[in-house]
Amino acid sequence: MAEIKELTKKLKEAHEKIKAEIPWEPIGHTPMPEIPDLRSWDMKLLQTYKPWYAPFCDLCCLCTYGKCDLTEDRRGACGIDIGTQQARFVLLACLMGASAHASHAGHILEVLIEKHGPDKKINLGTSVELEAPIIRTVLGLKPETLGDLKIAIEYVYKEITHLLDSTAMGQEGSCLDYESKSLHAGMLDHVGMEVGDIAQIVGFNYPTSVANTPLVDLGWNSVDKTKPIICFVGHNPATSTVVVDYLRENNLYDKVEVCGVCCTALETTRYYDRAKVIGPYSRQLFYIRSGIADVIMTDEQCIRTDMPIEATKANSALIATLDKVMYGLEDATEMNTDDVVKKMVEEKKHFAILDPKKAAEVAVKVAMAIAPQRRKEWLTEQEATELAKKCNDCGMCETACPNLFDIGQGVNAVSKGNFDIIREQFNYCIGCGKCEEECPRNLPILKIMQVGASKEKWKIRSGRGPIMDTEIRTVGAPITLGTIPGVVALVGCSNFPDIRDLAEIVDEFARRKYIVVVSGCTAMAVGMWKDADGKTIYEKYSGDFDAGCVVNVGSCVANSHIAGAAIKIANIFAALPLRANYEVMADYVLNRVGAVGIAWGVYSQKAASIATGFNRLGVPVILGPHSSKYRRLYLSRKEEDEWKVMDARKRQIVETGEPSPEHLAYVCETKEKAMVMIPKLCIRKNDTPQGRAIKLNHYISLYKKYMGGGLPEDLPLYVRREPDIPLVYKKEVKAYLTQIGWKPKEPVGLPTLIGTYPTKVPVDSVIH
Amino acid sequence: MSQLAPLMPYHRVNILTGTRTARLVEDPAEYAKQITKAQRPLLVLGPRLLKLTLGEKLLLEYALDIAKAKNIPTCATATVKSKMVELGVKPDSVYDIVEIINALKDPEWKGVRKEGNHDLVMFFGFRTDLGEQGLSVLKHFAPHLKTMTLCKYYYPHADFSLPNIRKDEQWKNFLEGLIDNLKKGE
Fold first, then answer.
1. Which of A97, A110, A675, B118 could be joined to B42 by an S-S link, Cβ 3.0–4.6 Å?
2. Architecture (CATH level 2) of domain B34-184
3. A52/A167 same-domain check
């Protein structure tokens, strides 16, 4: 009885927060879900997609009870086993990622509420009425103002605290429950990202309700070295936008170059299309060490933690602009502006300045003062050759390389005047600088690698934000029927293993009329490629959310618009109510929306939380080869596992025998293998025969292209009846199916997992 | 089987922070003995076999000679199958590395020849970081089998590993010695 009372009280509180009295849609079963509320959905997913753990370490070192050896069925002093310990680490990683985005969102929201007031209306343009699909689905709240977004971010903060609590010594003891918590953290991450990007679009007046946003300059050679240069590093545009304002107000915008590395660069181009994008995180140390930047301004996330040392070495000035990263620098927020400028110019001091206006003024004045005195040239081939002559090819650099390549071979070739190898190696280099650290002769390897860097300029389409409702109305049917073969979203960092892989994947699938979506550093990496006609991906393909187009949604937090698009298909196209209806939305996406995420070059914890959020929503994710270091994948075993769904039309549970999607989190060792996995992971049980035939056509043709001919071993699992067979391969496939004794299967009317596991959601909910 | 003294892996990103490390084997005869002793060995082939050569010979060809010498079933991962087909060899199974490891974890799995799960799994031709993580899965969650590596690097999470070999000639000699020893044991 007491328990029922408590639940009612909780529900009442949730209803108050989400303004339940506003009847824009009926409220679903899980308004503002807490840890247990979506647990049954998670457990259903985990029953098929079981966690696969690859421990980094035999030990648990998290408390003073240990270290504890967890090998050979040993448990820690607290009772934890090795699998649960891995799951705990994965949850911690997801929480780091989710909190990074949530904190960014919360900060930018505060800044923008201070600027515009809490009642500033959320207006994402005439083509985006469904402004916050994730917040509406998860919380049940329809945010109308910036102030409403605070309700969403406070919910995220609260849940993150609960989840973090569960990782303390002597708490959760089940790996599956830790996984459910990781899935919860991933979902919260998507809420946080959506809060952040909606706030930014509204508060900074970023482009919205438009597909083909401006093409902006990309690559370090796009920056005019003759001008003073301010370089932003990080993710949060709170200060970079104010720098742009300062330049505009003082009529200096054509006298100072504004550029950036990582997501702040992308954000700044959404505000100011004359800003330049240097490149992804992997280019950070190269660019900083080149000394081209006069002033470096850091904000948060993906910033070198040794930035003051690097800035000093490069003779650049450094301003830390956010409290999360202050580097032990003196806080000059309250100091007189001219005094700060003087100390930075004359004494070469770095400062933390937490007031964006003051930071902006100082940055511009310092850049203009020091630029004329600084040498800003790339290393010449002759200089590189001289430096490289010290290399004795000892191989120590190779042993330290996280991307496992032999940079010594390239440096050695440079010493002989051969630059071909180092040019090639520059594409693999993740820019960590570990090789230099190991070099017994202290060679400046990253500096030498400047000669391997392309001096080309490219174009990137600035981030466009949410997918428009009008676009969803156009593509909803072909995506769910399968005639648009899939949505391929390449997200996150682009460091590993070869930066060129991403553009090749994008080009392959855009040509095949998939909808391709990119974000974050990946959006930059795919721009660093040109076809035979000299066109970049963004010049070659339109920015619409449609077949054969390439959409750059924007920075890390704009990833929320990709998840949002999947939800919009269920809500706008299929007319399923989304309010506090997470299970229904996720079930729809899992069974009917052929979408796959590619997190190919990722290294950060944010990638873990973004991917895990997609997984809870029913979107499978392919990771690059190094990503087994994330410790956990979600894999099925297609021939052994059950593939039962409810046929919602017949109200019958049926065994389909069809592993679609086959995995939820998967590592591919090579780009070529990923090319084969992508079309397969876009297959859904809802595909019409025509749609399935199109999807299988791509699966077979890519298999033949990269696997040396023949037919995929698991093809019979995906052919339900003869019309599913692509026309081009009909004869070959039919002969093969006959040979193995394949039998046709009855198609499933409305495939859903609802009704196959304990849930409050009735089967009727999935029928529109 | 394993030894306590840790040895530094070649790629330091794979440094072992643990308690159980692979037994380092330098003698091909000892490797051949372990393989011969196994009831149902499996050779898992990675994509680096397609990129590297020893002398005139592609590394994949050494792998196929090892398989042939003792009729060891093969598992082609990534895009290895394409080259095998070109060389006129049909792999016994095609899985990606994470998939085959997922199957190997299950003691009830029937194996690639449906004769029961394997008791010795040899890995050859993987990125060291992915290989090492994969071996860690089996070390912790597949006590019913032993693992062995044939690459020129030390893999701490395996049961048996070669040392870090700087000279390819030494590696070539080892692989040829292994093939000879396996043939002798026929």
1. B118
2. 3-Layer(aba) Sandwich (3.40)
3. yes
Distances in Å between the Cα of A261 and the Cα atoms of A231, A286, A301, A351, A455 are 7, 11, 11, 20, 16
Min distance B158 CA to chain A CA atoms (Å)? 13
* A649 vs B166: CA distance, rounded Å: 64
**Co-location of A166 and A247 in the same domain:** no
Same domain for A629 and A485: yes
Helices assigned H by DSSP within A171-278: 175-204, 240-249, 263-271
Who's near B26: CB < 8 A, 6+ residues apart?
Answer: B162, B163, B174
Which stretches in chain A have pLDDT values below 70? 1-7
Work out the minimum CA distance from A331 to partner chain B, whole angstroms. 36
Chain B residues in contact with chain A using a Cβ-Cβ cutoff of 8 Å? 10-13, 16-20, 46-47, 77-79, 81-86, 94, 96-99, 101-103, 106, 109, 126-130, 133-134, 136-137, 139-141, 143, 166
- Verify whether the Cβ–Cβ distance A708 to B47 is below 8 Å: no
Residues of B in contact with A402 (CB under 8 A): 13, 129
Per-residue pLDDT tens listing for chain B (186 residues): 344 335 788 888 888 778 889 999 999 999 999 999 999 999 999 999 999 999 999 999 999 999 999 999 999 999 999 999 999 999 999 999 999 999 999 999 999 999 999 999 999 999 999 999 999 999 999 999 999 999 999 999 999 999 999 899 999 999 999 999 999 875
CA–CA separation, A700 vs A705, rounded Å? 9
Cβ atoms of residues A430 and A402 within 8 Å: yes
pTM of the full predicted structure?
0.97
Domain span including residue A234: 215-373
Domain ranges of chain B: 34-184
- Top residue of A634, A670, A677, A681 to mutate, by most chain B CBs within 10 Å, is A670
pLDDT at A271: 97
Residue of A nearest to B126 (CA): A669
The answer to whether A691 touches A722, Cβ cutoff 8 Å, is no
Residues A411 and A357 both lie in one domain: no
Q: Are residues A132 and A79 in the same domain?
A: yes
Whether this model's ipTM surpasses 0.90 comes out as: yes
| Helix orientation angle between A560-568 and A175-204, rounded to the nearest 10 degrees | 100
Report the alpha-carbon distance of residue A744 to residue A378 in Å, rounded: 64
From chain A, the residues in CB contact with B99 under 8 A are 635, 637
Q: Looking at the structure, do residues A358 and A426 belong to the same domain, yes or no?
A: no
- pLDDT value for A7: 67
| Helix H or strand E encompassing A360 | helix A356-370
3-state helix, strand, coil in chain A (%, to 5): 50, 10, 40
A667 touches A624 (CB < 8 A): yes
